[in-house]
Amino acid sequence: MDSITDNAAVASAADITRRARWSVDQVTALLELPFNDLIHRAHSVHREHFDPNAVQLSTLLSIKTGGCPEDCGYCPQAVRHHTNVDNEDMLAVDAVVAAARAAKDQGATRFCMGAAWRGPKERDLERVIEMVKAVRALGLETCATLGMLKPGQAERLKAAGLDYYNHNLDTAPEFYGEIISTHTQEDRLGTLAKVRDAGIHVCCGGIVGMGETRRTRAALIAQLANLDPYPESVPINNLVQVEGTPLHGAAQLDLFEFVRTIACARITMPKAMVRLSAGRQEMPEGIQALCFFAGANSIFYGDKLLTTGNPEVQRDRALFKKLGLRPMPREQREF
């Protein structure tokens, strides 16, 4: 085993981490490999654990849009940012079920429900629990992203049938304060611990293209890979710049660097579902194809991703046909 993959001890970020499998130096070394070598290595790892021509389809619905009190620099739903996203009421359960049924008809196997708030209040959680039960009754995997959870809330979501909870780390610890000031990354790690303790699968990734360095991206991947266990689903988002947010106008990330990030996620978290997530609409088909080859095997499928656009269903179907890809009927999880 070469120096990139030997086990090195680094400081853990929380109690849910253990002796590190990956150091920041090791992931940085991966990112700096010649592109062909990195992609070959990632694809080889991918083939060891998954059908390389199957992609899991998820659909994401915003069940509560706008009005969030947090100040995440990338997010158009923050109330303090001057964007065109209005503060809307929470959707009715019937409307969510109708959207989930339509998603299933289009081929999605997982339905994700997202809410723009710091965390759910009691009355909010009661309605979300109704949604989870109803969506699961349709035969879909359920996922929710509801912000930071209070004690006992994860257990109630688990009892309702929630399969996955999404709570991204967003970026590396040392860069976190540059993006968000209203909470810390430790707060997010606390919610992830609650989710794990409740027996819910973890969906956790990050956002790149926020002005971070390559080493910062490496630190994010290392932190994700060193969670114990690492997330079952890892969404990798490329910043979608929205006018009115603090990160609007940031330098665009080179898309080959994005592919490198996907490859490193696959190598360091070989059994995870690596999701090509936000920013996909702006990516040429060739870049998306490279991401799939490098180990991405999950996408958000549908017309909208929370408040920003997502490739239309027909475009995705056409791309899948060109590449010989097919929807994954059920998640090939080996955890």
Beta-sheet strand percentage? 5-15%
Distance between the termini: 24 Å
What's the order of the H and E elements?
HHEHEHEHEHHEEHEHEHEEEHE
Structural class: alpha/beta
Question: Oligomeric state of the chains?
Answer: single chain
Features:
globular, 11 helices, 335 residues, two-stranded antiparallel sheet, alpha/beta
Describe it for me?
This protein is α/β, with parallel strands linked by helices. Strands 1, 2, 3, 4, 5, 6, 7, 8, 9 and 12 form a 10-stranded parallel sheet that branches. Strands 10-11 form a two-stranded antiparallel ribbon. It is globular, with a radius of gyration of 19 Å.
Helix and strand arrangement:
Blueprint: H1 24-31, H2 35-49, E1 54-64, H3 93-105, E2 110-115, H4 122-137, E3 141-145, H5 153-160, E4 164-166, H6 173-179, H7 185-198, E5 201-203, E6 206-208, H8 214-225, E7 233-238, H9 255-268, E8 273-276, H10 285-293, E9 298-300, E10 304-305, E11 308-309, H11 313-323, E12 326-327
Parallel strand pairs: 1-2, 1-9, 1-12, 2-3, 3-4, 4-5, 6-7, 7-8, 8-9
Antiparallel strand pairs: 10-11
Compose a concise summary of this entry:
The protein is built from eleven helices and twelve strands. With 335 residues, the protein is of the alpha/beta class. The strands form two sheets. Strands 1, 2, 3, 4, 5, 6, 7, 8, 9 and 12 form a ten-stranded parallel sheet that branches.
